[in-house]
């Protein structure tokens, strides 16, 4: 199945240009090379520094040094658990820090296939606990701790919220993969022609490993979501992963969780890092949501 033109004209041009140079699934080195370039630029943030969080490299973005009581966001980057890192998501983290006023701690977790599940999930939890313990020193309120991520990082954020009940005040999930079974209708609808293909997603899941039925692999399979914090799901309308995000949002709402869904029309998976008006608007809205996160 190929694209049918449901993307905006600008998004379709970007999608087609990106797809011509991005490798197919199967070659880890080629995929990492293709994804290694930083988007460059990014908004100015007052203080940016690298640190190590109990063995996990992190980058800390502080938009207003000296302030206190702010939200603290632990950010987990996307890349199919196989590629990307601090540099590829630098511009996005800067934008989120600027839009929210929060300190953002971006985690450079271990990648598959060299480090399969649960390595990335364990690193994500390590960084969350490290950041929470140091919240006051970062000028933040530990009771305003948010876990966030895009794509596979959104999966890790959702899993981290499940693994740390009561420790987070919010989860911000940008187009996350939430079920390794890949059975939702959007998988077939957008299997090809929208940059992020179903074949890529299936291959990423294979590299990541773990039991597909385990809720710390597939959060949509978790039997009970009632203890999760307020949630914002930001989804791309033309995305293999759209429907599992919608399904997760429905389940969260049914479980009594305060859950908002921002379904962005005319865009494809990964749009937040692209020069599209919809991306800037979505980051702005997400930043406002983070800023409004109250103490638990």
Structural description of this entry:
Helix 3 (90-100) crosses helix 9. The chain is 35% helix and 21% strand. It is globular and about 45 Å long. The model has no long low-confidence stretch (mean pLDDT 96). The chain has an eight-stranded mixed beta sheet with strand order 1-2-4-3-5-6-7-8, sandwiched between helices. The longest helix has 15 residues, at 119-133. It has 296 residues and is an alpha/beta fold. The protein contains nine helices and eight strands.
Name the beta content range.
15-25%
Low-confidence stretches: none
What's the total count of β strands?
8
Note the run of SSEs as H and E.
Answer: HHEEEHEHEHEHHEHEH
Largest sheet geometry: 8 strands, mixed
Helix content: 25-40%
Query: Averaging pLDDT over every residue, what do you get?
Result: 96
Taken from the alpha-carbon principal axes, the silhouette is globular
Give the helix/strand class: alpha/beta
Q: How much is the radius of gyration in Å? A: 17 Å
Number of helices: 9
Strand arrangement in the largest pleated sheet = 1-2-4-3-5-6-7-8
The first-to-last residue Cα distance is: 45 Å
Summarize this, please?
With 296 residues, the chain is of the alpha/beta class. It has helices spanning 9-21, 28-35, 90-100, 119-133, 152-163, 185-189, 198-208, 242-254, 277-291, and strands spanning 47-53, 56-62, 70-76, 103-107, 140-150, 170-174, 230-238, 259-268.
Q: How do the strands and helices of this protein lay out in sequence?
A:
Blueprint: H1 9-21, H2 28-35, E1 47-53, E2 56-62, E3 70-76, H3 90-100, E4 103-107, H4 119-133, E5 140-150, H5 152-163, E6 170-174, H6 185-189, H7 198-208, E7 230-238, H8 242-254, E8 259-268, H9 277-291
